[in-house]
Every structure is written in C-alpha cells, then in structure tokens.
Amino acid sequence: MKLSISILFFLVVKVAVAQNDDIPDYHSKKDNFLKMQEKDVRADLSQFTFAGISESLTKHKLTEVPVKNVSNSEVDFDNDTIQVQIKTGGFDATKHKVTWFDDKYAVKLDNHPFWGTENKIPTSSIASVIALIDGDTVVIPPAAYADLYQPKLYFNDAKGSTKSYCNIYESANHHNYYIYMLNGEGAGRYEVTWVIQDKHYLRRVVDWGF
Predict the structure, then answer these.
(1) Contact at 8 Å (CB) between 155 and 70?
(2) Are 66 and 200 in contact (CB under 8 A)?
(3) How far is the C-alpha of 115 from the C-alpha of 43, rounded, in Å?
(4) Which tens digit of pLDDT belongs to each residue from 146-171?
(5) pLDDT tens digits, residue range 58-117?
(6) 137, β-bridge pairs
(7) Contact 151, 88 (CB under 8 A)
C-alpha cells in the first residue's frame, strides 16, 4: 500500500513538473550578468550579485551606502555624496493586458515578459528609483523597471532587527554607483542592479534562477 502511494505521488509530481516545463519562457537574457561587456562594471557586480559569485575570487573594495530609512513602501539611502530613494506601489491587473498560457499561467504583461512571480499576477510594483549625487538628480527610467514586480524592501532577521534586501554600492574609482534589489517570490525570485556612471544611468543587469 505504501509503495502504491509512493508511486502515485511520484507520478503526480512528475506530471506537475512536466506541465511547468511546458510553460513558455519569454524572458530575454540580454540583461544578464554573463552578457555584460563592461569589464569594470562586471568586476564590481561580481562582488555582490548572486549571478557573479563565480567571478568574485579576487576581492576589491566597494563602498556600501547605509540605509537611512525603510518601510513597507519606501527605502532611503544616504551618505556624504549620494542619496537614493526607492518607492514601491500596488498593481492593478485591470489596467494591464495579461497574456495567459493554458488559461491559468500568466506569461506576459502588456505583451512583455515580467519578473517577480511564478506565472501569477503580481500584487506590487516598483514606483520610482531616484538618486541625488553631489546635488545632481539621476532618475532611473521607468522602462528599466516596468517589467520588474514584487519588490522586497526589508526582512526581519533572527534577532528581530530590520534588514534591507536593497543595497547601494560605490566603485573604488568613484565613477560608478550600483543600486541593487533582490525581489520576487518562489521561482519568480530575481536580482536587479541599476548602474549609474558619471551621474548618468548606464544600464540594468537582471538575473534569476539562482
């Protein structure tokens, strides 16, 4: 009897996995860490990203900007040269076009693949990402986070202290700043880094599946 139940359980799991494997994956890898051509930026990202951990054998110093404030909808960072504010918001599915697979798996929003959930409708979004560097404002363009959902700003550690899922790093040459977030849930977990170079937005780096 136990053997029959075990076999049945195995078959159910196998069918479920097979069904998940059938769900089309439209995510592009053009923004992945391994696709990066900027050697200096890539070397810096290898110091703190999951995707770059295999290239982090040689450590070098990055300055980490401290968290000033964190709440359910906002996190702020601040030091003598840079201030960064990340705000989050809700998600109203009625204002978006959802592309479904097999009538139950959400695979696109507004005709684009998205990150943050395991083929479910998101419940939260990134509202804005703004940096102030030596008095100059740098706004991360909405297109750089419009497909990124389920932002996670903080968690409570074993001691009950509030810790941020987000980090800001400054390169050793003081030309680059990196705004990092670890977001999503379940198989939708992903990391994103927005790169600011010489007070201009350069690019984003997105990885998942770790």
Answers:
(1) no
(2) no
(3) 25
(4) 999 999 999 988 888 899 999 999 99
(5) 788 899 999 999 999 999 999 999 999 999 999 999 999 999 999 999 999 999 999 999
(6) 132
(7) yes
Task: List the structure tokens of 177.
Answer: 């700043």
CA 37 to chain centre: 20
d(CA 116, CA 114): 7
Q: For residue 168, how many other CB atoms are within 10 A of its CB?
A: 25
| Of residues 186, 202, 185, the one with CA closest to residue 194 | 202
Token pair for 134: 């030596």
| Structure tokens belonging to residue 12 | 């159910």
What sign results for the dihedral spanned by CA atoms 200, 205, 206, 210?
A: negative
Q: Which amino acid would we find at residue 135?
A: G
What's the DSSP call for residue 39? H
Work out the number of other CB atoms within 10 angstroms of the CB of residue 112. 13
Q: Kindly list the domain boundaries of the chain, sorted by start residue.
A: 24-208
Instruction: Write the DSSP symbol of residue 20.
Output: H
Cα separation, 23 vs 119, whole angstroms: 9
The DSSP string of 83-97 is EEEEEEEE--GGGS-
Residue type, 207: D
Q: To which residue do tokens 């479904």 refer? A: 100
What's the rounded Cα separation, in Å, for the pair 206 and 210? 12
